[in-house]
Amino acid sequence: MTLTIRPEQPGDHAAVDSLLRAAFADHPHSRQTEHLLVSALREEGALSLALVAEEAGEVLGYLAASPVTIDGAYLGWLGLGPLAVLPARQRAGIGSALAEACLRRLRADGVAGCVLVGDPAYYARFGFVVDDTLVFPGIPAQYCQALRLQPQAVAVRGEVAFHPAFTRFG
To answer: How far lies 112's CA from each of 93, 102, 126, 133, 155, in Å?
Structure first.
């Protein structure tokens, strides 16, 4: 069967909720509230992009992107996450396919860059680097990463703030 990456649709919400619950159920750095985070981002109109990976009509993976501010200003940068894949289908390239599709789309849409909090060994394959010019309050620096998507994008430095839903549910 063929894996399809497409924008999330309203009919996907229950499947995405279930996927997020399953994917983060045993994650050591999760409060198991990712489904609440995504729901809040949807309700508040704060999802710049939400993609699902599906096969034979089953939602297997999900990736969201939402605006971030840097030193209080929106500079055209987005925060990536959460990225989730059903546990039984992890390590099969679904997360990578979602990340690559997301970054292609964001580049094409002219998004300046992306930041995320995650495993540097995983996200380096997409070009993300630990960036000590950006501060993510309360998060160890080795997990704070950035990727400039447009060559002409202004270099950024300062304190990164994700949408307030991340404070409530992240």
So the answer is: 26, 13, 15, 16, 9
